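Fold this sequence, please.
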Amino acid sequence: MAHGFLPASSAEITSAMQVARGFLVDWDGCCAIDNQLTEAAAAFLTAHHARTVIVSNNSSNTVDDFLEILSRSGIVMRREQVVLAGVEAIDRAAMAGQVDVMVLAHPRMRAVARNTGIRLNRDEAEIVVLLRDTRFSYSRLERAANALRKGARLIVANPDLTHPGAEGRIKPETGALLSALGSCVNLDAVDMEVVGKPKPGLYLKACRALDLAPEEVVMLGDNPATDLAGAQALGMHSLLVRADEPGVLEALARDFSF
């Protein structure tokens, strides 16, 4: 969460809306807390779902999980309107073909990897995929560190250290686990790819889903270092939006139309 930063002002909203033909919107801390969609986000997505793509560093859930959460609020979106760092990281590993892959992740996401045809190996691997692994342990850390020491490639879903939880709690994220790996091996010597925001890949895939150029969309997110910085690097307008301060989403749902 972006502590110390104020949500977008009315002037910033007005300026961004002058160019907006579509929205990219973050999930955790912006639209939802612990995967519970806020009322303001539900109103925003109901009003603008046809021209919005969810762009999230989430690496614990599938696209189907997101579509189910949205459907419970009566919001219908296409699969290509949900772009998730975890799913994208698994897809990157699948592109390598039949190699042994160690996936550090929730069992749900390991199942996704298996269903894509990835050959999972918990002990030896040519690729290590690091997602938000809520069952991370000493033994997993040891196996992954030694795989990297032997030359395995590392694919990281996102660099986030935490994301917001309910009642002001924080949830450790993929970047915290990456820090643990980095304390065991020199990551500068590892062939490492970070997939999620602020890297450009998720933003560009989302723009393609809307058939819009980056300068035609507005990114809404709660983290200046990832959501907003990555968008701005691509020439996108961006607005700071926090789930616990719903005014921006309420204004966009109420006052803006394409």
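The longest strand covers residues 52-56. The CA atoms of residues 46 and 74 lie 8 Å apart.
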